User: Fold this.
Amino acid sequence: MGMNVPETMASPLVWHPQTAADAWQLKQNYATDSVYISGGTLLRTHWEAGIAALPKHLIDLSTVRGLKEIRVGETGLLIGGQMSLQACRTNAFLQRHFPMVSEAIRTIAAPSVRHLATIGGNVASNIGDSVPALLAYDAELLWYDGNAEQQLPLTEWLHIASVPSLANERLLLSLLLPFKETEEQAARDDADVVFDGKDSISKMKRFGAYHKVGRREAFTPSVVTAAIKGTLADDGVLQEIRIALGGGQTVPQRLDQLEKEIVGALVDGQLLQHVYDRILQLYDPREDLFASAAYRRTTAANIIVAELWKAARL
Ligand SMILES: Cc1cc2nc3c(=O)[nH]c(=O)nc-3n(C[C@H](O)[C@H](O)[C@H](O)COP(=O)(O)OP(=O)(O)OC[C@H]3O[C@@H](n4cnc5c(N)ncnc54)[C@H](O)[C@@H]3O)c2cc1C
Assistant:
């Protein structure tokens, strides 16, 4: 099937497939005796901590062709899943047009880890700190289903992750950060003025922020991660809003119900109180030894409300 002979280690066998189809086939052949491995940085910590057993077969995705590039396509920025976090972080286009993703990556581990760790591995882990930022930009994922490349929203991918029988089927190839009307315009003229589709130009304010709260300032696992992105009209009405939360072992989620409740509303004190109360009701983080669910909820609510308050300059 056109793949290299595996390297023999004491254990396990490492396969180096060159196509997604070959990688997929190996996973079908060895099933639960195998794992896909990209940078291996998260897997190693699991093996070393005894959270997971070292499997008999490692399917190395770094040799799959075409997944180590980042390029501007017609509909958005395409990021190969094998791009290292460090290479993503230093990409000028990503920094300029999707700054929350760059900021999220900046907060992950330390440079030595970021050189090995991949963006694909961060997303495929389901709990990576880049995920809330990617959710706020409506990221789509390209994945291989055994027959063809499929595209689906990151929100759906995270949902599939909660179904164990499907979770193993996923072979992530690339990520797409789509250009929105506002980003396309911004990319063209970099101004805070957007075309509102009704033959007139109106003043809009775009805002966005990503925060990671850990137990230390730097080089720390996350307790809460939060991303917020939106547009405000000059009369203070919210035109567009994305809110995504995660952190620790919690699979990040978009608070789409809350987004629907507040889009089109005036950002005032009453709205901020509503947002705060609803985050406490809607956000359901996992607790662990480091922080309770209640602490995580309150922290997330404070971050999001503070960012909305700053955006509206109340
Ligand atoms: C010291 C240290 C600090 C860290 N700090 C952070 C942190 O602050 N924030 C954070 O988010 N992470 C952190 N990590 C975890 C890890 O480095 C990152 O999540 C990293 O992005 C994982 O990428 P990887 O390529 O190394 O993934 P791997 O370890 O290779 O794989 C991770 C998981 O994803 C699966 N997988 C990988 N690629 C694919 C694919 N293309 N398709 C399907 N499944 C795939 C693997 O089977 C595995 O289950 C840290 C790790 C270390 C060692």
